[in-house]
Amino acid sequence: MQNANVLNCRANTHASRSRAVERVIKLMREKWDEPMTLQTLADAAGLSPYHFNRVFRHATGIPPCHFLAAIRLEAAKRLLLTTRFNVVDVCFEVGYGSLGTFTTRFTQVVGLP
Questions:
Q1: What pTM was computed for the model?
Q2: Which pLDDT belongs to residue 82?
Q3: How far apart are CA 3 and CA 42, in angstroms?
Q4: What distance in Å separates the CA atoms of residue 106 and residue 96, rounded to the nearest whole number?
């Protein structure tokens, strides 16, 4: 009987963490153009920043900041292809605060400057 309680508790914990990660991913996809810190994301998950980072990485395979950066870079590619915005405008539109950081990450991920 005690083993069943432990298994039930673990299943509840896993489900709760999954819902927290899903909430944060939804937030990232809806508000990718807004500033988000690890603390902001952890608050949305209802976890401490350190614990949230571990839970998110375990669930997705990458840290939350990399996941958010990928969403932002996808948006940047879309804007560069479908609008007349220049690179500086796109950089700030997708939530980057530094053109240097944006161009470095964009080049690393996309393979083109």
A1: 0.82
A2: 95
A3: 31
A4: 11
SS3 letters across the chain: CHHHHHHHHHHHHHHHHHHHHHHHHHHHHHCCCCCCCHHHHHHHHCCCHHHHHHHHHHHHCCCHHHHHHHHHHHHHHHHHHHCCCCHHHHHHHCCCCCHHHHHHHHHHHHCCC
Q: To which residue do tokens 């807004």 refer?
A: 34
Query: Taking a C-beta distance cutoff of 8 angstroms, is the pair 94, 71 a contact?
Result: no
CA distances from 46 to 50, 86, 88 (A): 12, 38, 35
The residues, any chain, with a CB within 8 Å of residue 58's CB and separated by 6 or more, are none
Task: Provide the 10 A C-beta neighbour count for residue 67.
Answer: 20
For residue range 21-70, list pLDDT tens digits in order.
999 999 999 999 898 999 999 999 999 999 999 999 999 999 999 999 99
Phi-psi region of 111 (alpha: psi -120 to 50; beta: other; left: phi over 0): left
